[in-house]
Structures are given as structure tokens and as C-alpha cells.
Amino acid sequence: MKNKPDNKKQMNRRGFMKAATAGMAGLATQGCVNNINWDRFFQSHFKEMDKEELKSTLAKLEKEYSAKYGREFVVKATAPMEGTLFGYGLDLSRCIGCRRCVYACVGENNQSRDPQIHWISVMRTKMGDKWADLENSTRYYDPALVPEEGYFYMPIGCQMCEQSACVKVCPTGATWKEPDGIVVVDYDWCIGCRYCMAACPYGARHFNLAEPDIPKDEINTNTHYLGNRPRPKGVVEKCTFCIQRTREGKYPACAEICPVGARKFGNLLDPESEMRYLLEHKRVFRLKEDLNTQPKFYYFF
Amino acid sequence: MVPIPARVARSALYAALACLLALSFPSAWGQDEEELVPSKDHPGYFVNPDGEIVDEFGLLLRLFEHESVCVRCHYEKEKYEKLVLDWDKSKHSKNKVTCEKCHGGNPKGANVGEAKNVETTNFQVINTPLDKLEKDLVPQAAFKYCGQCHGIKFRDWSFGIHGKRTGYWNGEKEYWVCILCHNPHNPKFQKLEPKPAPIPPSKLALRKKDEK
Predict the structure, then answer these.
(1) Which of A99, A261, A267 sits opposite B176 (nearest CB)?
(2) Residue A48: CB partners within 8 Å, gap ≥ 6?
């Protein structure tokens, strides 16, 4: 009968604890765990930081990035303005699909060049095709000149949903909606589970599969903690309406570069703003409205 | 008589026909070039067989069609090639929007003084480069010249829906007036070269150091 456990070979609880502690201590003293930045490991969640901790964290980040890229960095944590709710408008009858916005965004927001990450996807659809679910659209079109006859173009970035699916599924609370309507990510709290990418109906979230590769002379050193600061490997990132610009009153980079002026940006709570005029006077729709995500990104024509 | 093979006879017939065809249209090539005579009244222009004034390519200038004769005096080769030929391609040239509609003056005037009627000509606005124009005159320029026909577009522009604004969404803005984006002599947007397409996931390779 071998029902009785063999006491000699089986490890008892005390023995296991001893071995485990010894093992952990061994690992910690050796090189294996030395790569972990312990300050960052114990860093609080952005929303829970008090003023002093925030200040010291930003200083630490500035130091770290300056050392890494060899240039002076500014990492801000500009708070949202009172009475603002950002909205975005895009004129579909103007957009010619030239992708100027895509690359302006890459430069402004320090996206990885290799492996390539683009926060904006410009979708090309044949006129007359079923388009609302984007099944028949492509982002890999490559003609010599745009616009092409018989096609229309639709740039898609983060739609800044009021009822964001991505925020609901995040298990660590690393992503949330700010009071001014911008959905942001705390890269130091993101564990890279990519639930949000699966949940987002717009494909607006992107994952750093490798350590981001940004040329040192092209990096934007004016950064925001929740926005375009350099990201580590293994976190999710997304459009933030250029939080480092818009919270200071500037237009987003994509709106400034657009050669046909198809991109509109403004405060939805300000009755005098461009966005409000657009909503009142133009034919406006939102993407995948049936999902009740309530985006603040309005397409018009 | 030696019988000629049918194949040889046929090819000889084709050759003769081809010769005849070529001879019957002796002036198929270079006809326009030969018969363009330099115009005496309009330096740099030509007169075609119908007595119309055309440019060196035999192109009938709509400027003359509409009896707008500014170029007769204001002729500079460079400007003409850059501005007037551009205008000739545009929709404006087909819809009688001639020089004076924007530049002012009256080209049908009896003398130079009348042609350059100062009252209908806002030389200060139209002849100043836009970056040197006083700030409050900029919207006025857009309104005066383009807005007088394109009313709906002008209304949209004045609310920031058509066209572009840069600077601050809640403060000092730069208003991009019509001619900063549109070529005033040929306002329709020209096609652009797109930036490179994104790399599809199938071709997305991780760098070697991360693969380890």
C-alpha cells in the first residue's frame, strides 16, 4: 500500500518557507532582480500621489529620461482646466488621406519607430461599400497621389468615450477618464495585460511589444506624465488629445498639421467654441454609436 | 508572265496603301507651330489662323475671351507663366472671374487712368504679401475677395469650421485665410503625395536584442 505519504521525501511547510526565503534573498543579492527600479516599483498611483510625492516622482523621471536620451527633459503633470470637456471634430468631406497627422502625432508623442506604433489609423474605404464597421476598409493603402477617385478616408484615433470600455476592464486602475474628458494611462501602473486593447471597439490602443526605439534627435522633450513621456516596454499607450499641449490651451499636433483643415478641436462646454458651432450646424455622427460608448470624437461632412 | 505569289502581292498592296495614307495628310504634324504668327499688339503672344490671340502652345487664353485685357500692359514672362496660366486652368476662368474681380480696376476703361480706377482697387490689401499685412486686415482680405462669391464657405470659415486655425484653442489664434491654403489663381486643391503606409503586422519584426 502506498497511500501513506513518504515523510522523508515530502517537504514540510517549515522547510519550504526556509528554502523560499533563502531563494528570494539569493535572487535579490544577485544580478537577476537588480534591473528593477525599486523607487518606481513602490511608486503610488498617479491619483493617490500627494503634491510632494508627485514633485519628486516627476523630478526622478526627468533625471531618468535625460540620462537615457542625453537631453534636458520636462515632465509635467498639468491639471485639467476648470470647465473644460474636450471634443474633437473631423470633416470627412475634406480629409484626403495624406497621413500628415499620423506622422505629426508620432513626432509629438514619442511613439516607437521600431516596432512601429501609430496612434492614428487612416482608413480608406471605397465609396458605396459598407463602411460603418470598417470591415471593408484598409489602412495600408499606398498610391502615388491622394485623394484617389472613388475612395474616402477616415482617420481614427482614440474616441475619448464617456463610457469607456477600456477603463471598465482595466484590472489595475491604470487607465481612467480625467475630468476634462481625456482617457489617460499611468504607464507605471499598467501591467500589460492588454484587456483594454481587446475591449476597445476602435482599435485605438497600442502595445509596446519591445523597448520603444526613438531617435535621440527626434524625441520631444516637452512631456506630460499621463501623455507623451517615454514609455517602457510592455505597456499600453493611446492618443491623449496631446494632453501636454491641450491642457496649456494649444491645439493638438494633428489639428495643426492638417493641410486641408479637416481637424477641429475645442471645448464642448464653451458655447462660443468651434466644436459647439459644428455640433449645432453640421451633420455629425459618431463611430459605432450603437455600442453606447458615447465618444467625444465627432465626424461631420 | 511569271505568276506572283499571293503573299507578296498582298504585302505590296498594303505598302502602297500606307504610302497613300501618309501622303494624303501632309500637315498632320507641326501644323499649329507653322501657322502661329507672332502678334504685333501683344508681345509674347501669337495669332492663330482664325485671328485669335493664343500663347506659344496654341492655347486660347480665356483672358481675351472675356475681353479682359490687363495682360496687354502688365506683361512679364515669369508672372504670366506662373499666374495667368494657373488661372487659365481654374474654374474661375470658365466663369468670367477675371483679374479685375479681385485686383480691382476696369480693364475696359478708355484710358489708363480709368483702367486703374483707384476706387475699385484695394491695392493696399491685395498687393501686400499676407505675412506683412496688418492683422486686422487679414479677415477683411478673405471676405472682400473670396467671400463675395463663396458666402457659405466664408460663413463656415468665420466660425472656424472651414479652413484651419492654429495657436490656442482658448486664446490667441492664427486664422488661416483663404489664400494661405488655396492658390488664389487656381484655388482647387492639388493632389498630394501621401506619407508612407504603416507596416502591416505580418512584416513587423522585433529587433534582435529584444528577441533574446
Answers:
(1) A261
(2) none
